[in-house]
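Hi all, posting the design record for the shared folder.

TITLE: backbone redesign
STEP: 1 of 1
STRUCTURE INPUT:
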């Protein structure tokens, strides 16, 4: 039925009348212009591994580790995976990738991961702080002139438009706090930003500056732990999402354990307040920060999930209904007595999915946990009416009017129940009249009342 006579719920209580009208009038829309359907438009990985250095000591396993990482990124759905090994990883090529290639091609809704396996070195600045750097194929470990320094990486992160940037450095390197990070302009981004849209530049290195790198079964311990984390071991909260911060924590713990404490990976955020997503789960399962613990935190989290569900329904995106229901389920897990979530669940099961048993269960829970909200009884009444339990529906509607006598849409639904289902014309007339008195303006109600008056007026002989 159209919005002109939608049996919606009271905007003053849950906003469902406005939502019902919105959903009935607007067809499913495509994604917002300029926005990706998922988290990213494109995912980029640059994998660099150097065994056969031109002048520096040769390494064993860096190329093999790089290929294993590149394969993992492809399995994660990265569309652009650039592999650079041995002599292709020259100083000129590495600087070209950082200074020109990626800044030209990467968009603001992309993610970039740069993996490096090779030698690292360090020099000192004027304040005697270590300046870590990566050693290209044609450079010397003790000469910074051809190196890729941490400052170079930070400068790259400021110039590239990517939403999320992660450096994974299979080398003993640090010194990324030499210069303060600068905020990237957020022009063109959503305002306010979603948690998954917040800018993030992060770095994970295999060990402290000058530390030893260990191996296990021929593969670097760092890479072994990193790959295990990507395969799911880092998802310690089991929510389906694997974030850079989770990978950092898992890798550090595992490498320290496997190396007997001799190797200590380092993880840091260089810029932004976000977190790079490496494995994407359901949006309804994503949560920034720790899980709520206290009763107040759980109630606040439930309200947050409810608000997100309502917002999703207004956006009319594909699968928004499914995700909204998942968020409402999450809200009631956080706070089983959060009545508004049951009201909205009942309404969606009734109006959008025609799942009457689920709608009834949610409606009964709404009445139990939100007895002072007339929408609890109103929604339950609509469900009972559709199930053919007309007398029970009448009781629910009447209870809604006890809570709010001026709720015009309840008077309308009660009038419909009397007119169409219970066949009680006097009560239908009474309810329709109250509907008009409380601000209703449906023409069909006036037509019904007009016909009722005509039927009751004796015909002149």
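Okay, here is what came back for every position:
SEQUENCE:
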């Amino acid at each position: 039925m159209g919005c002109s006579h939608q049996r919606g719920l009271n905007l003053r209580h849950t906003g469902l009348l406005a939502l019902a009208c919105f959903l009935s009038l607007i067809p499913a829309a495509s994604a917002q212009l300029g926005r990706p359907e998922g988290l990213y438009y494109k995912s980029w990985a640059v994998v660099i591994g150097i065994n056969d250095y031109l002048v520096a000591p040769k390494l064993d396993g860096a190329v093999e580790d790089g290929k294993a990482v590149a394969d993992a990124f492809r399995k994660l759905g990265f569309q652009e995976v650039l592999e650079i090994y041995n002599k292709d990883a020259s100083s000129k090529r590495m600087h070209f990738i950082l200074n020109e290639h990626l800044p030209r091609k990467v968009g603001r809704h992309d993610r970039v991961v740069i993996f490096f396996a090779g030698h690292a070195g360090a020099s000192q600045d004027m304040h005697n702080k270590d300046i870590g750097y990566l050693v290209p194929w044609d450079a010397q470990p003790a000469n910074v002139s051809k190196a890729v320094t941490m400052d170079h990486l930070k400068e790259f992160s400021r110039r590239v438009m990517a939403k999320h940037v992660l450096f994974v450095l299979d080398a003993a390197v640090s010194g990324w706090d030499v210069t303060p990070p600068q905020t990237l302009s957020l022009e063109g981004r959503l305002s306010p930003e979603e948690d998954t849209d917040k800018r993030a530049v992060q770095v994970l290195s295999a060990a402290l500056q000058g530390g030893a790198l260990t191996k296990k079964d021929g593969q670097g311990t760092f890479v072994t732990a990193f790959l295990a984390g990507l395969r799911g071991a880092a998802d310690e909260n089991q929510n389906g999402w694997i974030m850079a911060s989770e990978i950092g924590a898992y890798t550090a713990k595992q490498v320290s354990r496997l190396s007997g404490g001799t190797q200590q990976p380092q993880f840091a955020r260089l810029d932004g307040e976000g977190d790079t997503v490496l494995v994407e789960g359901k949006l309804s399962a994503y949560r920034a920060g720790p899980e709520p613990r206290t009763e107040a935190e759980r109630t606040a989290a439930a309200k947050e999930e409810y608000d997100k569900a309502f917002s999703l329904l207004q956006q009319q995106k594909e699968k928004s209904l499914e995700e909204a229901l998942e968020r409402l389920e999450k809200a009631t897990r956080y706070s089983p007595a959060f009545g508004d979530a049951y009201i909205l669940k009942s309404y969606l099961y009734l109006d959008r999915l025609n799942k009457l048993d689920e709608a009834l269960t949610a409606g009964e829970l709404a009445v139990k946990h939100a007895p002072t909200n007339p929408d609890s009884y109103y929604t339950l009444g609509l469900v009972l009416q559709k199930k053919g339990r007309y007398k029970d529906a009448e009781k629910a509607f009447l209870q809604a009017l006890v809570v709010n006598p001026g709720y015009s849409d309840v008077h309308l639904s009660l009038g419909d129940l009397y007119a169409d289902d219970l066949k009680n014309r006097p009560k239908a007339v009474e309810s329709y009249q109250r509907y008009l008195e409380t601000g209703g303006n449906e023409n069909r109600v006036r037509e019904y009342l007009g016909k009722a008056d005509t039927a009751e007026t004796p015909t002149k002989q």
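COMMENT: The longest strand covers residues 164-172.
Let me know if anyone wants the other runs.
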